[in-house]
Amino acid sequence: MKIEQIYTGCLAQGAYYIMSDGEAAIIDPLRETQPYIEKLKKDGAELKYIFETHFHADFVSGHIDLSRKTGAPIVYGPTAQTEFEALIAEDGQIFRLGKVAIKILHTPGHTLESSSYLLMDEDGNEKALFSGDTLFLGDVGRPDLAQKTADMTREELAGLLYDSLYQKILPLKDDIIVYPAHGSGSACGKNMQKETEDTLGNQKKTNYALNQKDKASFITAITDGLLPPPPYFGMNVAMNKNGYNSFEEVLSKGMNALSHDQFEETAKNSGALVLDVRNNKKFAEGFIPQSVNIGLDGDFAPWVGALVIDVNQPLLLVTDKGYEEEAVTRLSRVGFDNVLGYLEGSFEAWEKSGKETDVVNRISAQYFEKEIKGKNAKILDVRKESEYNAEHIEGAYSRPLAYINEWINEINQEEHFYIHCAGGYRSMMAAGILMARGYRNFTEIEGGFNAIAKTDIPKSDFVCQTKILK
Asked: What structural domains does the chain harbor?
């Protein structure tokens, strides 16, 4: 028996490859399927099942393409309804895989069809639980994503999740290995650990959600402090449930090299957003006016989903040379399939053509310290609230990047301000958005709070900033 976790850090997502005696199963595959095909060929294995733990919201699964290429059935738990052919299993149904078996445990709560998969070895011993978004390490799945489709409140869904955990999962043996669908950084939970596998016994001891005194306290604990889900979640659910274009079609369309003149013309006529995926330092030093920076070197796909909002938005890409396919691939993972092409020769070709360029007003933390000394400077901290609450510049305003569309209109265009994040990745996204919307009265701090922390600028962990900026 072979179990392989295929973890994609930029999505904080875990897919799983299980093989026994020449037969294989894949749980929650990513959209690009070729790596799985190659793995099957290398092992000389036949793909017997594609198991889906639920209708994913934070990424587009590869289940449809993988089934089309291999003939393996797509398996969902009870109550799932799809627009494509799928095997809807019964609670407790057992699927044979070589010499091992996989049992479906219907565990609703995160969504109504959510299911976990219990792996039993050739002797019938329970060895591993593929828990999807029902049980994470350090957390459980958020219960607010299925409210509309289930016609239930998040508290009612949380109650279902409690029953699933306490009736189906917690009675299992402590030495079972838990393999969740996501890890730290995913928006599908709020308190996940950085580890990607653990024993169930250790989770019973350390997971806050599994240590509540009763159902009511569990419901309160897991619903408290939930941030709104990113806008693209609902669109990804629809794609996973109803179907989508093949990855090969999306890649072929996106890998359309455009000269600087073609790029400019397409941008004018298509309503496309110019998405610059180079690192924040390169973007600051020069970029195409009106473009937005979301770097490939960070949590690229989730941030595109959070900031671009509509998965149907036409996109034009500016990438470093050789990274065009990676950008298109990672966009497709979260359903952004409408890439019209990329700038051939990267930004250097645009610059050499003599076309208009722009720069971000960026200064070092050391220069920032000198510039604000003795002044009542206005500072926007675009990190998450939890980061701000831990420590921030004294007097700074907490304005998380994820909510920029809400706070951007608070800004007084006549008053200068400074922006920073933790290291420059998020503040450069904010800078691009601000400049695209006509705001130029700001300075961005290179290196963010990590660099600021090394200066003598006064800092605080006291939280009181709720004022409007105008």
From this structure: 2-234 (3.60.15.10), 247-352 (3.40.250.10), 362-460 (3.40.250.10)
